[in-house]
């Protein structure tokens, strides 16, 4: 759960907090402590323990390493007579920085809380505090109170209201034999309802997902629980799809007198008209020149811009509600650089049947070596032969690409890539430990994902050799600021990438919040949304930044981020194709384009092309989508404002055309937890 707060709702000041408590000073669980496991289908990633301390409080200790994303946290929680926490203390750190958080209710009934992003107070009353972070199991206290309240819900501090709806029951097996648990959906704490599992007493049992959190000994049940909750979510989004994707929404539409972005030519054309009919772009002409058929919807495009539907070239599709939100925010096509194979096929099937509002696009599957550091959701392999077999499996499923990951044995890349190319698959990915990006490209990569792996070309060998650990993050953060981007070696690197027609997917918006944030304000990726997303989501956007390495300052990390942006600028100038992607919610995409335009030397047209026609060409869909031209699919967004002067206008979407369906963007945003137009 991402935790957030709307700055407008509470007056807050930035607290003076000490440095994060180091791992060595955190509590250690005693023998007999409750033990939860954090695991994906690929590997175990961490542990959480809970136990009672002498004063009656509940203690928690979490330790997790997700391929270098480190979490070391502890917490104590004191419950009141009604089960609501009246005192919480969280210590330690995670991948977003200092996890320190304090909450307490005084004798007068005033609740006060303090995190790295602010402190505030309010009457406690009948409310319950929702922590910004902490060991994941700490959320059991909140869930248990919401379950007891039922669908009527409970008011939340700092803001919002949460409730729980119960679903079906199922039987699982574990150390104690068969056990009956029940699915429940929590509302009000995230964009959309999210699933949890309750035990026979109606108390929190665990969660299932890409990374599941279940009591030790119950890990094997996670896939079953995930399938059940996914089926329940699919019913919710199916009902929404049937309400939105109607024959009336596919009726002819004429948009007249609009500023049109011609992605093929890279030009902004004023006063144009576009006719949509039978799901296609039927005609494009001068404003006022096209005649609409009888019964068509007419839209006055004065003061608006019409842009091809956006592509997010780094969107790990899988969550149904997030895919709906992608469409609501203008992303009508995606390139998923890693979706579980079976999930990918299910998404394609339901979208085709009209049971899911989702972007179209292409999907890759991750392949990684069997290892504790293997990517979650990957097909894991133990040899060159198994690598080739995994590639064959992806091709047989009819998917688009293979994404190799950081724990792959370098010698397996070339034969795996050769097999992929023989079968017509795209090859991309993280750069395996021990390889530099140019090694991966020479071994067969068509594309390198994430700018930190491009930066690996200039990293010390000690960083390159451990790129499947936190070194892939720590190295570019520490040494990036000192890289000479214009050295002969780096210039030769850019030139070879361009000569080989290598594509780069930078995901700068992954790095900007981590490298530059200090908790004092919302990162630029999320600032436009802070007033229109759930309070808990907004609060989670306020991060303290990636933990600083020894002897380094936040300004050092900011300088390293500036070098990452400069690296994108040089790649672009050298003729390397860049595709815009987020590796996030998708809300970050417009900021990615702003960074290209404002800091990396792209024109506004070039920035938009990186999220329209360039990715369409990359995946071979440019004959049907990626630009607005007669005969192409009607995949477009209509936005308030002039995008040639302000790329931020791409957030101000009024109408989305997806597969020819005309969709009210505001209504769809609200269905996915965004209550109004972003700033």
Structure description:
- The protein is α/β, with parallel strands linked by helices.
- The protein is 27% helix and 29% strand.
- It has 18 helices and 33 strands.
- A hairpin with a 2-residue loop joins strand 3 (58-66) and strand 4 (69-79).
- Helix 3 runs antiparallel to helix 18, helix 5 packs parallel to helix 6 (413-422) and helix 12 runs antiparallel to helix 14 (554-573).
- Residues 1-17 have low confidence and may be disordered.
Structural class: alpha/beta
Task: Note poorly predicted spans.
Answer: 1-17
Radius of gyration: 25 Å
Strand percentage: 25-35%
Biggest sheet descriptor: 10 strands, antiparallel
- Mean pLDDT equals 94
Shape: globular
**How many E strands?**
33
Report, as a whole number of angstroms, the end-to-end distance: 24 Å
Please estimate the helix content: 25-40%
How many DSSP helices?
18
Short description:
This protein has 679 residues and is an alpha/beta fold. 27% of the residues lie in helices and 29% in strands. The strands form 4 sheets. Strands 1, 2, 3, 4, 5, 6, 7, 8, 9 and 16 form a 10-stranded antiparallel β-sheet that branches. Strands 22, 23, 24, 25, 26, 27, 28, 29 and 30 form a 9-stranded parallel β-sheet that branches. Strands 17, 18, 19, 20, 21, 31, 32 and 33 form an 8-stranded mixed β-sheet that branches.
What's the SSE blueprint?
Elements lengths: L33 E6 L4 E9 L5 E9 L2 E11 L5 E10 L2 E2 L2 E5 L4 E6 L2 E6 L4 E2 L10 H10 L4 E4 L3 E14 L2 E11 L6 E5 L5 E3 L5 E4 L6 H23 L8 E10 L4 E11 L2 E7 L10 E4 L3 E5 L1 E3 L7 H9 L2 E6 L4 H12 L7 E10 L9 E3 L2 H13 L4 E4 L8 H10 L3 E4 L7 H7 L3 E3 L1 H5 L5 H4 L6 H9 L8 H12 L3 E3 L2 H9 L18 H7 L12 H20 L3 E2 L10 H11 L4 H6 L3 H7 L16 E5 L12 E6 L2 E4 H7 L8
Parallel strand pairs: 10-11, 17-20, 17-21, 22-23, 23-24, 24-25, 24-26, 26-27, 27-28, 28-29, 29-30
Antiparallel strand pairs: 1-2, 1-16, 2-3, 3-4, 4-5, 5-6, 5-7, 7-8, 8-9, 11-12, 12-13, 13-14, 14-15, 17-18, 18-19, 21-31, 31-32, 32-33
Helix pairs in contact: 3-18, 5-6, 10-14, 12-14
